[in-house]
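Support case: copper (II) ion complex. Customer-provided input:
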Amino acid sequence: MSNSHLPRRAFLGGAAFTAVAAASVSRVALAALPEPVIQTSAATAAPLAPPNGRPYHPVVTLNGWTCPWRMNNGVKEFHLVAEPVEREMAPGMVARLWGYNGQSPGPTIEVVEGDRVRIFVTNKLPEHTTIHWHGQRLPNGMDGVGGLNQKQIPVGKTYVYEFEARRPGTFMYHPHADEMVQMAMGMMGFWVTHPKTRHPHIADVQRDFCFLLNAFDIEPGASVPKINTMLDFNLWTWNSRAFPGIDSLNVRLGDRVRVRVGNLTMTNHPIHIHGHEFEVTGTDGGPTPPGSRWPEVTTDVAVGQMRQLEFVADEEGDWAMHCHKSHHTMNAMGHDVPTLIGVNHQGLVRPLQRAAPDYMVMGERGMADMGEMQMELPDNTLPMMTGQGPYGPIEMGGMFTTLKVRREQKPGDHSDPGWFQQPPGTQAFEWTGAPPAAAAAPQAPTPATVNVRKPGAGDHKHH
Ligand SMILES: [Cu+2]
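Agent response - structure generated as follows:
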């Protein structure tokens, strides 16, 4: 892709950039833009081992990728293109979003503490934009708040941001121009700054994952998010992917694992990992002192926050990892279904079907049936809860994936090892002896309660 049609004055002239150009950016360095690298796949790309510059252990962006850069006289140069993109949220559903370099989120920017970083931002959106480098120490004019720190980047223009990555940690980037629309449309990305030398609060890890929490409101059958929604989102996603579209985190038994999470939704997300205890080793402000840490299995990531979770993966298996808000582990369709548990539809279905032939009872015994039911959905719509496991439907959607811990996973191998084979005698099993006394006599409902009918087997033949 060529950007040679962009006029030079787009990045050399204008009041907003006079100070930068004079202070530190040579005209020669800007004579040629780095070629933007465009991604078309939503698969998890292999970590980008630093081809030049100082070495570090690279991160894996879940269902994402790392932005390649070029070194130019000691400066790391990146090129981000803000543009409309098509993002597969899970197999069977493609959303029309806005993002960077072909995807939403944009590529992860990965640098080392002390690196001088120059980012060219080309605006191919239908309206102006900016990029704010969330959490960074930088000169005020590089902070990216449109109108406050700079002029917004007009349509078709390229602006340059340049600053030193001053502190190691976990960061994000997103527009600070028409934010409500641009973030609802998926414009965001991750940023990781590695420490330049051993840091007393930053451990060596064998696996380092990152992803953003985001959310969309896309009507079943549609593909463009509704941008005015504030709370009632129907697609809760990690890196603009919903389960079963979110890749598993595949690690080797005994690995020290770091998971970096950033929250760009408008609500909090308690992130929960099964089978292990983790510590929060980093926050928005950088690494936490070891004395301030405590073990937990769920940590809340509030709006606008970044968290680094760390643990030793010392339990083999396929461990669920998800947001603990149960509405965030389902896809569209489920949120507006009326609660029918315990409601007796006997005698009602047939008259209703006479009036509305498509009428179907859902949820009378709970909604687990929906994981198996081959309901007819509008095109381009994800089932509410889905995903097939080795033992049946997983009955999840949204912010859910698995942590796969394997003895035989090779160091650095990020491929999916398949499903875990539980060793004999280590899996829940059906009791086939005489029922214990307590289970045989369920307590009768007290007269004071509403008369709900206990669901029994074989009395629901109305589908
Ligand atoms: Cu959540």
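The first strand starts at residue 60 and ends at 61.

Case will auto-close in a few days if no follow-up is received.
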